[in-house]
Amino acid sequence: LAAAPPPALPGRAPGVATVFRDWLAARGSAMAARATACIERSPLGHAAELPGPVGERNLYLLEPRGIVGCVASDPDALFVQMTAALATGNRIGIAAAQIPPDLPAEVQAWLAPPDAAPSVFLFEGEAAALRAHAERQARLSPAVQPIHVARGGDYPLEALVRERSISTNTAAAGGNASLMSIG
Fold this sequence. Notes:
Oligomer: single chain
Shape: globular
Structural class: alpha/beta
Strand order of the largest sheet: 4-3-5-6
């Protein structure tokens, strides 16, 4: 509901994102530097305690969305998408023909089954191909699956995590310790 995404929230990318980045670097891919930047700005795992009334504890968390479908016309664009998915703790949905044969086993474990439906898509390609992809997805699934294109070469990582808030009634859970210490 915001006009612009919030400032980067400190989080922590899973180790598999680093494994993927190191694999890119070992291949001599220029995408390794972009992968490092993506990993560093991952909001995954961000947690904050929100203010609330006495007797209530409110937590705000960022979690993976599930499966990120990656649709790209060339390997470098696909690697950027895969990095974004891994940096945000999501599984990767790609066509079997696009899986590099030397992809590390740790990364292969994060590939979604071919029949699994992504909850969000990253797309790189021509406008006509994007339109065709959106129409195909609309026919295949009644659920709305957002499709994101890169902004300035990067994908919006905040769109690859979901917000979760947990509100705990501490009064009902045995009382508020800070309230009990008021003397």
